[in-house]
Design goal:
Blueprint: E1 6-13, H1 22-28, E2 34-37, H2 42-54, H3 62-78, E3 81-84, H4 91-104, E4 113-117, H5 125-130, E5 151-156, H6 161-168, E6 173-176, H7 181-193, H8 200-213, E7 241-245, E8 250-253, H9 264-271, E9 281-282, E10 287-289, E11 294-299, E12 302-306, E13 309-311, E14 316-336, H10 340-357, E15 364-370, E16 389-398, H11 401-409, H12 414-417, E17 422-423, E18 433-444, E19 453-456
Parallel strand pairs: 1-2, 2-3, 3-6, 4-6
Antiparallel strand pairs: 1-7, 4-19, 5-14, 7-8, 8-12, 9-10, 10-13, 11-12, 14-16, 14-17, 14-18, 15-16
Helix pairs in contact: 1-3, 3-4, 6-7, 7-8
């Protein structure tokens, strides 16, 4: 069959909580072939798992469903395909909710939903460990057996293969669990251009295209460090679009008339985001060499990307394990001029003495003076003694709940039993929260790939 000369893949979300107007603007602002919506990060998986533990019907990015209800008529009318990892830890429930939305809109016969599963390892975890997979922590080397009783979720990072399969089987909406951010974009490019899975240069090119799109407007002017004041109309920012060619080269752009900017600086800053080793950006699909990337500004808001080289994929897949660690709480008080810094320091000392006198034990007590040292520590000596206001932010962490709950009751009394001029205290006691910790591990690839299934709903 004939292959397209250009495939347009548009970013619609860069994380769970991103700008809700972006997907609608992408499908209505100009021609696109695919809309990719990336919702997942390691902390997001932990949050979703906590939600599902409370309610088995949840565990996915519910914003995605309402977003889809807004854009499904345009998607159906224009032939746009949507790919998202919004399924989180419960992709089937997410797909069912989108199917219900399509039915409400009378699009039941038009919208074909591909469901990608197979990343969830919880049901096989003990079997895999017994078979010799240690799931050793990539940072510490500890075996998973050290925390096995506290594991809440375990998900392998899948690549583009199941996305490609779903598209080949006719899906125009693909909902996945833990598919990599880059795989959401690479999948449609492999499907459209017929790239072979061992064509490592093109796989690397599609991976880098996905990396540029994965954080939404961060590559089109948002969060831009270089010349940030020159970026215009961020209130109307255009999300990035990749216009890809069959040879692996592509252009990063955005819809005409939108705010923000696409230039070499904006693309470069996104490229170095979470890059790690620039010679070896490892994904389930292959290894991309970021040192080979060539960027060239060809016109306003158009950056051409070429020259990308890649290497074969590794024999392992990464696994994200979420496990229950303990409890935490964070409280804040704002102290105003005069002597704001000294007041905040005095309040911190008073609180710490009270906690000690109560016999409470914490793994960590962390204090930050927001406006003084919370972001960069102490820079340039002592803070301005005449500073207008300082936020005292203090948090505690413990394995047991009781000391954290007691800490949460000790913040408010400082308003009347501590230094003067407290303001900004509202909302009641700090909330005690469970800590779901992250455990990165590796798993032999062959144990996962045969388990991937794509179902059309």
């Amino acid at each position: 069959m004939s292959r397209p000369r250009t495939v347009r893949v548009a970013a619609g979300q860069g994380f769970w909580g991103d700008w809700l107007e972006a997907p609608l603007r992408q499908v209505r602002g100009g021609p696109i072939d695919y809309l990719v919506l990336d919702y997942l990060a390691e902390v997001t998986m932990s949050i979703l798992q906590k939600q599902r533990s409370r309610d088995p019907a949840t565990g996915y990015a519910r914003d995605f469903v309402s977003q889809m209800e807004r854009i499904l008529p345009d998607v159906a009318d224009k032939g746009i395909r949507v790919i998202s990892n919004a399924g989180g830890v419960n992709p089937r429930a997410c797909a069912t909710a989108v199917r219900a939305a399509a039915d409400r809109l009378g699009l039941g016969e038009t919208i074909r939903i591909g469901l990608v599963t197979g990343d969830d390892l919880m049901g096989r975890l003990d079997e895999l460990v017994a078979g010799g997979e240690p799931f050793a922590n990539m940072d510490t080397g500890r075996p998973l057996s050290d925390v096995r009783d506290h594991v809440r979720a375990a998900n392998a990072y899948l690549g583009m293969a199941p996305v490609v399969e779903a598209l080949q089987r006719g899906a125009n909406v693909v909902i996945t669990g833990r598919v990599t951010d880059t795989g959401l974009t690479l999948g449609p490019l492999v499907h459209e251009f017929g790239w072979q899975p061992d064509d490592w240069d093109r796989i690397a090119a599609g991976t880098i295209a996905g990396h540029i799109l994965e954080c939404g407007a961060q590559s089109s002017g948002g969060n831009l460090l270089k010349d940030w004041r020159s970026v215009k109309r961020l209130d109307d920012v255009g999300f990035p679009i990749v216009e890809a060619q069959a040879d692996g080269s592509f252009t990063v752009t955005k819809h005409r008339g939108t705010g923000g900017v696409v230039n070499v600086a904006s693309v470069t800053e996104q490229l170095v985001y979470e890059m790690g080793d620039p010679n070896a950006y490892i994904t389930p699909d292959g290894v991309a060499d970021f040192t080979t990337i060539q960027l060239r500004q060809t016109a306003k808001d158009r950056v051409h990307v070429s020259g990308i080289r890649g290497r074969p994929r590794t024999p392992m897949l990464k696994v994200s394990v979420a496990w229950f660690y303990g409890y935490k709480a964070v409280g804040t008080l704002v102290y105003s001029w005069p002597d704001a810094v000294d007041k905040a320091k005095a309040a911190d000392a008073i609180l710490r003495k009270r906690l000690k006198s109560l016999g409470l034990t914490f793994e960590q007590v962390l204090t930050e003076l927001v406006g003084v040292n919370a972001t960069h520590g102490r820079l340039g000596g002592d803070p301005d003694p005449d500073i207008a206001e300082v936020m005292l932010r203090i948090g505690v962490r413990a394995r047991e709940r009781e000391p954290v709950e007691r800490f949460s009751r000790e913040i408010a009394p400082l308003v009347l039993t501590g230094p003067p001029s407290v303001t900004g205290f509202a909302g009641g006691r700090p909330q005690v929260e469970e800590i779901v910790a992250y455990w990165p591990a590796l798993l032999t690839r062959e144990l996962i790939e045969p388990l991937v299934r794509v179902e059309l709903l």
